[in-house]
Design a protein that fits this description.
By secondary structure, this protein is α+β, with helices and mostly antiparallel strands. The chain has five helices and twelve strands. Helices cover 34% and strands 27% of the residues. Helix 3 runs antiparallel to helix 4. It binds zinc ion (ZN).
Amino acid sequence: MAKTVFKPLNVGRVMVFDENHKIYGIALELKVEKGNLRKMAELSESLGIVTRYIQVSMEETGKPTVNAIAFLDFSRAKATPEEALEILTNSYDFVKNAKIIKPQGKGIIFDDYFFPLIAAGERAVIFRKKVYKALFNGVREKFGSAGEAMLYYQGFSIGAEIFDQYVKIAKSRTVEDLVEVARAINMTLGWGVVDDVNVDLEKGHAKLRIYRSFECELSRDQRNPQSHFYRGAVAGVFARFFGKDVEVKEIKCIAMGDPYCEFEIKTR
Ligand SMILES: [Zn+2]
């Protein structure tokens, strides 16, 4: 049976905390060497600092340094953040740069040091639900079926363009390899979980499921399937894959109460 329960990952960089806690951030540039994380963990332990969050920027494997951001709890620490920073930079050569981030408000801290975000080699922008809901539902409420058509065509051109990236990342054009890459990218970027992809090369047909589509999750209790943008993206990808015009129908949809959205792709 397909996996239908997913574990969310909070990407962090914003932390809301009890005002009684003393949370500070630290932005670091570190040399990549064996044992460095352990040394820092030992130092923070000796100073009574608790790590609440840490993220290391993913760099190319050959790069000598990495960037990292951490949120540290100084509530019971034996040193102030400034003292801890001084001890850290004086004790270890591998710390190339270190900067303290102070809470921006009462009980809230943001990483206001690193910018922009990079995902899979490109600048990425995160839209939270309120924002993408306004974008997607707004255009449909205002322009009705014309808005839905617009979303479809935008999705289509994105899909057609993204197909080249799938091929580049997969270094292959076989169905199996492309499906793996598509699945990974859709999942990593939070769009949805692609599953059960079946492609009939001879007939020019395909079928696939998407669990938790970000687009269809915006609607409920609908009589019709609700995917326009994502369906367009699927169409764009398969139009390029088959090298022909395609028609994509959404035959199951979470907005209608189905456990997943299912798409049927047919070449014309
Ligand atoms: Zn749907």
